[in-house]
Amino acid sequence: MSVVLFESALLVPVPEAEPAVRRHRFRYDAVALRGVPAHITVLFPFMPAAEITDEALDGVRQVLTRFPAFRFSLTRLERFPEGALYLAPDPAEPFVHLTAALVERFPAYRPYGGAYADVIPHLTVAQVSEAAIVDEVSDIRSSLPIQSAAREVVLMAEGDDRRWHMRSRFALDGRGRM
Fold first, then answer.
1. What is residue 129's predicted lDDT score, i.e. its pLDDT?
2. Measured on CA atoms in the order 141, 38, 86, 145, is the torsion positive or negative?
3. Total domains, the chain
């Protein structure tokens, strides 16, 4: 009998993007149908859901309390070489700093399992490699730029129902700034 290790992720939700991307995400991004909102990933994969303890949550909170909320815009539709379409945030650096700080505190959990050398913050619109999809999602461009603010990081975890559920919220309030 195989053991299923349910995943978790730390995300910045971007509800302002939902009207522009929801239809495309529901069609071309499987996690959208499993309860994951429009977001910019801060750290995925994070620890297996069953291993998230109060101590781990305190560690995340200690890292994130140093960071203030920040404004950003989703300014352009881009494509990764592997094919996924995404909206790029501007500025991207605050997301990179959040990821770096969390990886420093939790070095066993590398962004995307260490598959990529650089962290490229993004809001996934479609997980497909077909070039034709670019025309189908081009209506998103008419909604750009999308203005938003990163006010919190949320921990979502996959449940035994295979849906993703909100587990914790961490305010970006900068109270613990160095």
1. 72
2. positive
3. 1
